[in-house]
Write a structure and sequence with these properties.
By secondary structure, the chain is of the alpha+beta class. It is about 30% helix and about 30% strand. It has a single domain, classed as 3-Layer(aba) Sandwich (Aminopeptidase), CATH 3.40.630.30. The two termini are about 20 Å apart.
Length: about 150
């Protein structure tokens, strides 16, 4: 379900992101950063992009979308866990990002990350967390949901 997307998938990724007011370019699929996609039944169900800072010790979440049709089916969770695993593999110690809360994202995995990081309820929240702490919190949330 979760994999590294190829350049030829960029138009489909751009369409998904544009539905949520975001944009992606060919740079978002480079090999240096972490780009992950999820497919279900051949359909692009989600996309997550994590940019690596120069030292590779810190990263930032910039694009994280799950299509409405596939929400509450574990897509966002699978993308988040795969991104965290890749961050750990690359030696990332800290993750940063802005998490948006609105009608489209109110029950999304972005809010699971927000909850895991102890962020406040403002519409746009800047979050920062240590990778081991985020991983443990997401694992805990997954156990409580299951």
């Amino acid at each position: 379900m979760v994999y590294r997307p190829k350049q030829h998938e960029l138009p489909e990724i751009q369409t998904l992101l544009s539905n949520y007011g975001m944009h992606a370019s060919a740079e978002h699929l480079n090999r240096r950063d972490i780009a992950l996609a999820a497919r279900i039944e051949g359909e692009l169900a989600g996309f997550l992009w994590v940019g690596l800072m120069a030292s590779n010790r810190a990263a930032y979440i910039d694009k994280f979308v799950v299509a409405d049709r596939w929400r509450k089916q574990g897509v966002g969770n699978a993308l988040a866990l795969a991104a965290l695993a890749e961050c750990k593999k690359r030696g990332v110690k800290e993750v940063h990002g802005f998490i948006r809360q609105d009608a489209s994202h109110a029950a999304s995995s972005m809010n699971a990350l927000k909850l895991a990081l102890g962020a406040d309820p403002h519409p746009y929240t800047y979050v920062r967390g240590q990778i081991d702490f985020i991983e443990a919190e997401l694992a805990s949330l997954n156990r409580s949901i299951a």
